[in-house]
Amino acid sequence: MAHVAIVGGGPAGLSAALFIQKNGLDATVFDTDATWMHKAHLFNFPGIGSQDGSAYMATLRRQVDSFGVERKQGVEVTDVHSNDEGFSVSTADGDHDAEYLVLATGANRDLAEALGCAFDGDVVEVDVTMETSVEDAYATGAMVRVEEWQAVISAGDGAAAALNILSKEKGERFHDFDVPADADATFGEMSVD
């Protein structure tokens, strides 16, 4: 089973993790909890009338946890590099290998630079699938956009990266679309407050 390492636990990273794990691949999220969401209040996120950013993050974490995502909370990634099998993600507790990498580190582009990703001015260059110039490495959210730093855009970027990884793995275009009959089985024990 393919493994996806996701660096960053904001809306982009957790959205990617949700789609990846829900659809049969393994996701590990490295999250220092430095997301800008702790400074935000959501009024402009579809489906959320008004919610504190930290409360939104708590709900999103419970959701990814309900699918079995491995979250390495409080673990900082110090380096990433490609190897023969994909990628190695370095942390204080050692290296972690993955076939795919999703960078979701907000406006911090240091890891993308260390990996050798191409840049377009100050932002990481990605194609329509969110893939960088480094094969099987994806970048999302504020690191690929000059001024479009909205939670809903970042979450969409994370979902797009995940769906494109799933498409690669399955060898055909993949869509994650649940119907009402699937809803109870899909969400299992997770309750959304």
Concise overview:
With 193 residues, this protein is α/β, with parallel strands linked by helices.
Question: Could you describe the 3D structure shown?
Answer:
The protein has 193 residues and is an alpha/beta fold. The chain has one domain: FAD/NAD(P)-binding domain (3-Layer(bba) Sandwich). The chain contains 5 helices and 12 strands. The strands form 4 sheets. Strands 5-2-1-9-12 form a 5-stranded parallel sheet, covered by helices on one side. A 3-stranded antiparallel sheet has the order 6-7-8. Strands 3-4 form a two-stranded antiparallel sheet. β6 and β7 form a beta hairpin.
What brief labels describe this structure?
single chain; 193 residues; alpha/beta; FAD/NAD(P)-binding domain; three-stranded antiparallel beta sheet
Blueprint (SSEs and pairs):
Blueprint: E1 3-7, H1 11-22, E2 26-31, E3 41-42, E4 51-52, H2 53-66, E5 70-73, E6 77-83, E7 86-91, E8 94-98, E9 100-103, H3 110-115, E10 119-120, E11 123-124, E12 137-139, H4 151-170, H5 180-187
Parallel strand pairs: 1-2, 1-9, 2-5, 9-12
Antiparallel strand pairs: 3-4, 6-7, 7-8, 10-11
**What count of structural domains?**
1
Spatial sequence of strands, sheet with the most strands:
5-2-1-9-12
Please give the CATH class: Alpha Beta
Radius of gyration: 16 Å
Assembly type of the chains comes to single chain
Task: Give a short account of the largest sheet.
Answer: 5 strands, parallel
Query: How would you sum up the global shape?
Result: globular
DSSP helical segment count: 5
> Which percent range fits the helix content?
25-40%
